[in-house]
Structure formats: structure tokens, C-alpha cells
Amino acid sequence: MSDDEEFQAEADEVYAELLVRIGEAAPQPRLEPTRKACELLGDPQRSAPVIHITGTNGKTSTSRMIEAILRAAGLKTGLLTSPHLVRVNERIVIDGLPVSNEALVRNWRDIAPYLAIVDAELVADGEEALSYFEALTVLGFAIFADAPVDVMVLEVGMGGEWDSTNVADGQVAVFTPIALDHQARLGNTVAEIARTKAGIIKPAATVVTAMQTLDALDELTEAAAHDEASMVVEMRDFALESTTVAVGGQVITVRGRAARYEELFLPLYGDYQGQNAAVAIAAVESFLGGGTVALSPDVLAEGLSTATSPGRLQLIGVEPTVFVDAAHNPHGAKALAGAMTEYFDFEQIAVVIAVLGDKDAHGVFAELGSIADRFHVTRSHSDRATPVDELAEVALTVAPEESVLRFDELSEAVDAARAWAVAGPSRAVLITGSITLVGEALALAESGGWKP
Taking every annotated instance into account, which residue ranges of this chain make up the domain Mur ligase central (predicted)? Predict the structure, then answer.
């Protein structure tokens, strides 16, 4: 038994203790409890400089690319990202690897008494105890300080202004494309959502942003001006100049802030991943040299070539070909449909899909209808999953009745889709619509022995 396997049961207990707290579907719009817990622990969020990332789509992939480039540059990195697909360890990454069970358990034991103090004070004041995400964020900071790391790359859980990661002060604030999502929590317009996300901008920081709608860019510009932060904007200060389809991904050329970087291999599909890479390069340039020092071509080549983005157009099966993608809103679904068309030449695609109840299912189906020859409608085990019959009615607005099949279990939907794909030439299966569904599909492929 390895050291990590020895601590597996205790790591599972840590996760169980986190799960009894208020879940991520109902985040608490507050910072003070997280800040208090961090103060009691000696402010571990200040133990290393921070790059902070928010946005609606692409923030996980961009975070991972930033981390990979920094690691290639010789820095010891800490990456806090969410959600996880299979195990909670995936959210807290040290030097490119999920935190070990031993470190997870040891740091949880260290911080638990301090979390209990904050919980007791909150309950005494009539407030909810620390939530799942608040406690997990504190745990991540503690693990990074314990490692210790040279730099923290923090992905916002939701929004920005009151997200618990915002107790840290980012030297660089990164914004991926902002679109409508989580309207019940963040606002009903892109401008309102951008205003909430702009809360991660700190005084004198550098703001690096992907292309945005004018409404979103106006909000970011106003927030940056208020905090005397400098703005670095895609297409003005940096850009993805070209991308070419390659075996296993794409080859990109990027005009960075300090130099032009030619023919970099990126093992990820989709032009949007090339744009994410351009944002990541500009962010690292801003962090390491204030945007005036060129990055080493060797560092960039190594960093991008090793970048991964689990659950984002990820191949999880061959014979037949099966992909998973975590697209769960119309903006993400549109990018996914474009990538499937531009990077692959399958003649027919079966889309296995489940969508959570608080998402724009109509918008997702509208975007995927152009590539789907059939929909296998199902649901994940999340208590927020849309019922199968209800979701099927949405599918029928973009597809004929004979192309919409209903399955109560993901395993049944996937088995039927794989059997259909094997029966005809040039067919593929795409599993999408929900991050929880993707996680379950990965576990299914692993247990079924068909994951490559």
C-alpha cells in the first residue's frame, strides 16, 4: 500500500465533513468569515503572491495554462480550482499534481479547530457556519503555505467580489470572457455580472482581460480606474494571431505584451483554447516582468505542451470515440459546437446530455442542435439535475422526436450511444451539459475499462 492509499479513508472523511456544510449551489455572499478564519491561521493567503482568475467560461483552462507556464519557468506553484470531477484533491494542486491524501488530511486537522471557532461565532450571531467552499478555500490556502509555494493561482468559485478566494490580493487579475450565467446570484445582465466579477481587482494590480462585450469591458475599466490598476486588453495589448489544427491539438502564434511567440503547440482543441492561451501568456508576462520582459520560448513551449484541462473536450474513449465537455451554458455550448466542427470530421454525433435546473437548457440545446444527430437525454445524480422528461421536452424544440431518446441512468444513455456509434462509420459520442455529468462519465469510463 502506498503512502497516499494509506490516507485514503481519512481523506474521504475530510470530504464527508466538508459535504455537511452548505453546498456550492448556495454560496454565501460574504468575505468576513473566511477572512477571520485566515487571520486565526496567520493569513496563509499572504504567504505567496497571487494571480486571480474569474470569468464565465474558460477560467479553469486559463488557470491551468498559467500554472503550467509558471511551473515551466521554475516556480513552485499552487493552483486552487473548482469544481472537481472525481476527487476533491483535484481542486488543490501543488506543482501540477493534486494534493496528496496525507497533506489534505494533515492540514485539515490543523485548521479544523480554527474553523470551529469561526463556526461557533457565526452561529452565535445567527448566521450560517462556514460553507463548503469557504472551508475548502481556507484549506487550500493552508496547504499552499505549508508546501510552501512560490505563487498561488486562484480560480474564483462564483462571481468575484464576495467569493471566498477574494480574501487574497492578486497582483494580476485575469478575466476570461464574461457572459450570462448564475443570474440568480450575480445579476441579470452581462454588465451586472461583470461588476460583481470586477471585485477581484485590487489597488495597483494589473488587469488582463480577454475580449469582452462593451458593457463588460466598461465595468472592468471603471473598476480598474477606481483602484488605479492598469488594463491589459486582448486585441489591443496582446492577441492570438493564428491557430492551425494539429494532431492532438493546435499550433498557435501569439502576440504577447513583450514579444511575439511563434508556433507553440497546445494539446487542447478549440480556437477558444488558443485564445485562453493568449490570455494566460499575457498574465504570466504581467506577473513575471511587468509586461516588458519576453518569456523564454523554451519555457512557453514546455508549459503549454504540458497543459491539461480535464473535462474540456477530453477524449475518454476510443472504438468508439467518446468525448466529455463541461459546457453548461449557451456561450460554452456554442464554443463546443464550433470546436467539434473545426477540429474533427465525424459524420454523425450522439450527444449524451444532462443539464442542471438553474441553467439555460434551451440555450444549450439551441447551440448543440447543429452538431447532434441524436440526443440521449439523461440526468446526473445531482439533486439539482433537471428531470429527464422535462429536459427531453426542451430537446424536442431543436430535434425531431425520433432523435430524442430518454434514459433514467447515465450508464444506460452512454451504453446506448456507444453501441450506436460502433454500428456506423465515422460516428462519435459527446457527453456534455453538466460538470457533475462529466465527472460521473469519467468514473464510468474508468470502471468500465474503456478509458484510454
Answer: 53-284
